[in-house]
Amino acid sequence: MKSLFKNQDRHPQWQGTPAADWRDWRWQMRHSLKTLEQFSRLYNMSDEETLGFSVHEQFQVRTTPYYASLVNVADPEDPIRKIFMPHAAELVSAYQEMEDPLAEEINAKTPRLIHRYADRVLFLVTDVCGVYCRFCTRKHFTGSNEAMVSGKDYETSLEYIRQHPGIREVLLSGGDPLTVSNTQLEKVLKDLRDIEHVEIIRIGSRMPVVNPMRLTPELGRILRKYAPVFLMSHFSHPRELTTDAVQGLAHLIDCGIPVFNQMVLLNGVNNHPALIQALSRRLLYARVKPYYMFQCDPSKGTDHLRTSVDHSLEIQRELWGHLSGLAMPSLALDLPGGGGKVGLVPNFETGSSENRRSFRGFDGVEADYISPPMSLMKVPSDVMVYEKEWFNLKNAKTAFHSSGLPEAAETGASAEAASTL
Ligand code: SF4
Q1: DSSP conformational letter for 328
Q2: Are 215 and 249 in contact (CB under 8 A)?
Q3: Cis link prior to 130 (omega < 30° from 0)?
Q4: Are 351 and 363 in contact (CB under 8 A)?
Q5: Mean pLDDT score of the chain
């Protein structure tokens, strides 16, 4: 196990920092690097990177000393450096760039609550992150010094969730929800748990990547109190899985918190099957399920970091058959403009006729699959037990999209169905 994960060396700048400080997540946040001058003390800055700091006004720059130390200073093209270091290429718009690629502002029910799918909401609890990723989808919100949601925005967001019984899942996002204190986080979790129809709470965070000291046994105990709580980690490169990160993840997993990983395919950072398999195998060994591999959203300043869809599919095809199903992330793309996710799957089909479908497998083996006719398909005998629940979910979605409001989810029938789950 140990050979899969490496200890992380500190950059010489922090060699003398006492271990108690280095291992304190608040110290890491307080000593975050934000300016060109600070980065120049660590690395030889290229002209493009220096120029990249002129986008600072539009999208902040920030990383922790821990994450900055993961960079190989001898490699000017270091992949981890590209994740947080601004670059002149951000100033060039060549293909597709959008202010709000997922159209979240259209679906915002309060300044902090986005309701795009009938049964789920996104609750932006803070706009602060431990790192400002250059590929961020939510640049229009993240890093605007709005900090922890409070007062009216918090209350109206909670009230909206209370008033909509069709909402079964709340995804805490931002910004990064794990940048807030345990006390603040626990208040949010408790308030959500007090709403009877909220079944699942998810926390999306890059703190396990950039500040794994945040994942303490105490945090694990807090999350366990409000279970089921899922952590969605965002590891994008195998070198991010240090022994510190794996140890932090274990603190939560040992408390029964399931961890799923969502990564973004990035040009020059991780766009090779060798890297993805290394990341996925290590994640699985650390008991984290590789969940999604996303096509990068076309937010502003990301053209140079995005992969082509064909390239992404090629990577996925290469992984097929070489990586166990457990380690395989699903490739998906969020439709620009807020149309939701679509799955991207390599095409293994070579032809079809009537009920015969022909395929060529990952290593070239060809075979036909001959199906029984559709006329023989039967409905399971106990389907009526689940049908009402299913129709309510589907109707809620239809009404949600046609009116912009999830009215059907709030009918007595829906509430009743929710209570039978
Ligand atoms: S941590 Fe997430 S929200 Fe924050 S900048 Fe990175 S991608 Fe954006």
Answers
A1: P
A2: yes
A3: no
A4: no
A5: 91
| 89 CA to centre of ligand 1 in angstroms | 19
Rounded Cα distance between 5 and 1, Å, is 7
Q: Where are the alpha helices (DSSP H) in 199-242?
A: 207-210, 217-225
User: What is the maximum span of the chain, computed from C-alpha positions, in angstroms?
Assistant: 74
* 278 Cα: distance to centroid of ligand 1 (angstroms): 23
Average pLDDT over residues 400-407: 45
Sheet holding 259-265, edge to edge: 108-110, 113-117, 120-124, 169-173, 200-205, 229-233, 259-265, 289-295, 330-334, 341-343
CB 260 within 8 A of CB 232: yes
Q: Is 301 helix (H, G, I), strand (E, B) or coil?
A: coil
The mean pLDDT of 52-62, rounded to a whole number, is: 85
For the annotated catalytic residues, the residue numbers are 116-117, 120, 129, 133, 136, 138, 297, 334, 341
Reply yes or no on whether the pLDDT at 409 is more than 90: no
Q: What is the DSSP letter of 97?
A: -
* Residue that has been written with the tokens 């079809």 in this structure: 352
Q: Which residue lies with its CA nearest to atom 7 of ligand 1?
A: 136
Q: Are 167 and 161 in contact (CB under 8 A)?
A: yes
Q: Which residues of 256-279 are buried (b: 16+ CB within 10 A; e: fewer)?
A: ebbbbbbbbbbbebbbebebbbbb
Residue 396 makes CB contacts below 8 A (sequence gap 6+) with 118, 119, 166, 406, 408, 409, 414
Rounded to 5°, angle at Cα 117 from 102 and 142: 40
CA 125 – ligand 1 centroid, Å: 13
Token pair for residue 203? 């926390």
Please choose, from the candidates 202, 274, 278, 284, the residue with its C-alpha nearest in 3D space to the C-alpha of residue 249: 284
The pair of structure tokens assigned to 3 is: 């050979």
The pLDDT assigned to 93 comes to 86
Q: Is the CB of 132 under 6 A from ligand 1?
A: yes
C-alpha span between 147 and 339 (Å, rounded): 28
Query: Mutual orientation of helices 151-162 and 182-193 as an angle, nearest 10°?
Result: 30
Say whether 398 sits in a helix, a strand or coil: helix
Tens of pLDDT along 303-344? 999 999 999 999 999 999 899 999 999 999 999 998 889 999
Ligand 1 contacts CB of residue 129 (under 6 A): yes
Tokens read off for 318: 């290469």
Give the integer Cα–Cα distance in Å for 101 and 121.
17
Please indicate, yes or no, whether the overall pTM of this predicted structure exceeds 0.85. yes
